[in-house]
Amino acid sequence: MTATSHHIRFILDNQLVELDFQQSENNRPSTTLLNYLRSLPSHKGVKEGCAEGDCGACTVVIAELNSNNELEYKALDSCLVFLPMINGKQIITVENLEQHIGKDIQLHPVQQLMVENNGSQCGYCTPGIVMSLFALYKNHHQPEKEVIEDSLTGNLCRCTGYKPIIEAAKQACIHHGKDHFSDKQQEVILQLLNLKNDNSSIFLSHTEQLYILPQNLKDALEIRKQYPNAVLIGGATDTALRQTKKGEIIPQIIDLSQVEELKNIEITNKSIIIGSAITLEKIKSAVEKPFPALFKILKVFGSLQIRNIATMGGNIGSASPIGDTLPFLIACKALIKLQSSDSKRLIPIEDFIIGYRKTAIKTDELIVAIEIPFIHENHILKSYKVSNRKDLDISTVSACFRLQLNNNKEVEDIIIVYGGMAAQTLRAKQTEAFLSGKTWNKQTVETAMGILYNEFSPISDARSDKEYRKLACRNLLMKFWNETN
Length: 485
Description:
alpha+beta
């Protein structure tokens, strides 16, 4: 294993900040970026609204180097980000947007246009909205309305509605991202390159916690073997809630968010291979053409802020029965690539998830990649998500259907997968067996709906009662039939 470091370093307010958690009384490694910023006298603009990534009041922007050593700007929910995850990055908050020119204050274009369009009333959510617009400004020139709306799905506003905010975005994003940050871009790149050159794994010790941030796959595998009981995280959008909502302090954490070998996407003639630690937003951009069904699900997976840090490895590893990607992956017969310091193995996802939030991963293994075979061109593949809100909501019921018909419109092969209907994502095998060999028509599907209605025994919870889930499950099959005729 390479030499180890015991501190993290990042840029804030154009200054290099170094945190040593052994010397800190106020911060443990899993302190969130939100709480750290609010502990500072000059960063009260970031607000806590929900502490679970649902409201966007805590939105900040990070600037990090991409593979070409260029700066990428990403909006994210600081309430879900543990401090070590910002190692080697620049943090930008609403306080950094304005410029002081002599005695005058010059607002950033997104701030000025929010003012001119009356985009703020009570003001509590405004800093988070402004930061989402800032990320939009840096990444898009004259964006379409759909792009603007997607950038704002993670920001809830109960005062203005969104029309003046959308108008402010349209008027602001006409400068190709040019602003006072552009003037210092090369300076920031050099600073981040200096931080990047330190490739040593980071061990952060605190009286309550050990937080390990490996910088390469070899170290990560050795660390996993040495600390088999540590909680693994990629983006921590699920794990962070154990702390922010339940007050749990996790004793040992292995954070894979900076292992570059886990962030690749490889497309072969047979499959697409997705690194376990690449963000869902980058996956979304890569799969629109080869896998439109996955693209459709990722479009409504949380918000842009969440997709900018969440990973497919995390969505699979958490084994939640309502994990949005799981029905699609099962329908596609995806394979999970597992690796330890001594061995590698490939396991079908149906065999990997073995119960409620339980998987077949061994205590010395990591999920390194997910391989999704391309489906044959004569197969129909569609995914669906039923939730109380269209955007930024947890699934009540999710589904994916894969269908192959012969020339007589008979079902040659069908896979039906549901999330939210049992303790784990499952195939509706009784319904599949009934439909196999049958003519794909409305009468056959209506009969299958009766079988499907009784195939699962879902529970009632805060999102829905069990009867609604059974009806939604059944009706999605008819929706699929309607869309295939």
